[in-house]
Amino acid sequence: MLKNALKLFHTFGTISLLFFLSVWAASSVPLSTVKASDAFVFTAIPDEDESRLRQRFNKIATYLENKLGVAVTYIPVKSYAAAVAAFRNDQVQLAWFGGLSGVRARILVPNSEAIAQGLEDQAFFNYFIAHSSTGLKRSTEFPKNIAGTIFTFGSKGSTSGRLIPEFHIRKHLKKAPNDVFQKVGFSGNHTRTIQLVQSGAYQVGAVNSKVWENEMKAGKIDSSKVSIIWKTPPYPNYQWSIRGDVDVRWGAGFKNRVKEVLLNIKDPDLLASFPRTSFVPASNSDYQPILDVAKAIKLID
Amino acid sequence: MGKSVLKGDVLKFPPKNTSMVRVSLMFVGVALFCLYFSDISITTHDPWLEINRMIVGVFTPDFLAIGAIGDTLLKTVSFALIGVSMGAVSGFLLAQIFHLRVVRLVCSFVRSIHELFWALIFLQILGLTPLTGILAIALPYAGICAKVYSETLEESQTHALQVVPDGSGIISTFFYVRLPEVWTHIVSYTSYRFECGLRSSAVLGFIGLPTLGFYLETAFNEGNYSEASALLITFYVLIATIRYWLRPRLIGFYLIVAPFLLGGGADIKLGNVMRFFTFDIVPAPLRGSSLFDVSSWVDLLNWMQTLITAQAFPGIISTIVLTQIALVGTAFLSLTLFPLISNKFFGKYGRMLGHLFLVVVRSTPEFILAYIFLQFWGPSMLPAIVALSLHNGAIIGHLMGRYSNEISLRPDHAHAINLYGYEIIPRIYGQFLAFLFYRWEVIMRETAILGILGIATLGFYVDSALADIRLDRAIFLIVITAFLNVAIDSLSRYIRQRLRLSRTVQHHPN
């Protein structure tokens, strides 16, 4: 009897203990998430291999920290939408966006500004690439014979992987991608687009020219299997965007200092990692064409 | 011969057996019908380059490549531990008031949304903070635990209740009489949930939380298969050894330490939370317009109609097609796989290999399986069907194998294929269907994640809406997904009741 009573007491005790411990654990979670330092945080859209991005942006963080005299952190994210959400929620104050993600982010954050872009971003372009078995060859005209193939975009929120190729497909073939192709996929990022077209899983794909160059340099492209079939006309792309309220937190003139420091990146290794020749000033109005296209194909209301 | 073996069951089974066979055939028929409409094709031309690299990766796991593997594992376990404890405790409390209709509805609604979607929603409200991951696990798990705990309590034996003296309080009756009766069931179910929690926690890494999935996604994306296989092997070991490190006495200690291992995150801002509820999820046509403005309500109707015809409807069709095919695939696979771990068919060492195989298949996230098959076969529904069937077949096979071990046989029983076909299958078939119907709704929820890979299920459209930062559309589609799940859940309950399948499934494969 006593043994049973003890057992019951034990059960009861365990339950209440576990109960209080879980409540305790739950309530301490928010505490552990409070940031100790007031660091200036930035992110970048995950458009290619994450380890490559980490290497590049950790270097940028160190550079900014030295020049600005405040703690600077880079946080990697897994999607374009997560990068925009972090910027919008003030969890990052600066971001390396693509044309489309930048436009979206700046609509959501009043007073935010595009401050710098790569020299090449003023006239960026894409490639359409195809698997060798399709027999498609490079041309200067839009390759209308891609209709009926199995096609992959990059990420759904990408400028070069989605917006621009979809715009040209609609313009030249007068139909939505779903009606043009046998099948339409979203590979996730440009590195994967190249890999999936190279393996023949998709026959044709749209890829960012800079990532193509990077992969070519890294020896990851087998030219006998995948090749360029078309180069798009130029459009404005990547840029550094900053929130409007940074001056309130880091002092008047902070925004301008960030801009100046970014424009002054001269380290050849750092520039080569993007790869960009140099950075030049940018403004919100430079991206009006992107906004127009996004509205035209209804990616932005 | 079959007759003499069935013995005592003969009287009880005939009416039930025929209806079970009829239902099974019906489901196979539906799956074949769906197969006709599904999009299945093999398009890959040169998969071997990538597949070779994968195979090399499997045999050359590179444990050193993952610098922070210890940290990642601790985080994966911590998220699971806190999430599941919170879910279990709230579920336990909710189970006490589960007879209230509103509680039942809320629970079935929260559990019908996949952890990944919860995480994507909280990502918008709270950002990349540990709380996002914790809530994404705790919320659906509370709904599931509430249901299972209340069923367990309901079905508990009541003999002890009859000898409780008059005037005993509700609380002492509960703790001294009802709870001890079901305590072992609750503990065993909760520990099963913890294994699921570990899988959920790992998968949350795919969207950016610092758990195992974060590095797994990177490794796969970049084609570092040696790193990916090292991560997966570590994860298998973690799951296979749960019972050695998750000692009941240590849980308290773990819970005290866990919050400090989650790592920091961004600040949570009240303004962001408010904005989510008052602006983001309000359908675009209603934003900023007056409630009495008729034209904005007309716009709302158009908005809904477009969403339903262009996205929800085709999404629902592919979701159902994929679910029904994968359900039957799961059934065939689990019937094939369970003997691997059954003492009726294999000796000790054979079963050890069987266990190893099943742990590997069921612990590999379906997302990763589908990704691998996409390399083999190119984009179609095929990779998704095979991934879902394998993952779920291994889970049900595991449960059935354990169940078959408890069957006692006559000394003159048949062997091998005869034993399988004439004795074991007829005796466990009811339990098998019960497992399968419990899993039905789970399979449907999982089709959502595969939508993120590009198969046009509802999950695909939710993912697209989130990518376009159209949270109003995303939430609308998520709610439709939830209703579809609730409907499947009720249908499954109806079929289980009609077939009089045991409601006391000790290890719900939920």
Question: What would you note in describing this structure?
Answer:
The complex is a heterodimer of chains A (301) and B (510). Chain A folds into two domains: 40-122 and 236-296, D-Maltodextrin-Binding Protein, domain 2 (3-Layer(aba) Sandwich), CATH 3.40.190; 125-231, D-Maltodextrin-Binding Protein, domain 2. Chain A has helices at 2-33, 50-68, 80-88, 99-108, 159-173, 177-180, 190-198, 209-217, 246-250, 254-263, 268-273, 288-296; strands at residues 40-44, 72-74, 94-97, 113-118, 126-131, 150-153, 183-186, 204-208, 226-231, 239-242, 279-281. The model of chain A is unreliable at 31-36 (pLDDT under 50). Chain A has 301 residues and is α/β, with parallel strands linked by helices. Helix content of chain A is 46%, strand content 17%. Chain A is built from twelve helices and eleven strands. A six-stranded mixed β-sheet of chain A has the order 2-1-3-10-4-11, with helices on both faces. A five-stranded mixed β-sheet of chain A has the order 7-6-8-5-9. In chain A, helix 3 (80-88) packs parallel to helix 4 and helix 5 crosses helix 12 (288-296). Chain B folds into two domains: 64-280, MetI-like fold (Orthogonal Bundle), CATH 1.10.3720.10; 296-510, Orthogonal Bundle (MetI-like fold). Chain B has helices spanning 2-6, 9-12, 14-37, 48-59, 69-96, 101-111, 115-126, 130-155, 159-162, 170-204, 212-222, 225-240, 242-245, 248-257, 270-280, 294-337, 348-363, 366-377, 381-405, 416-452, 458-467, 471-498. Mean pLDDT of chain B is 84; it is low at 1-14 and 505-510.
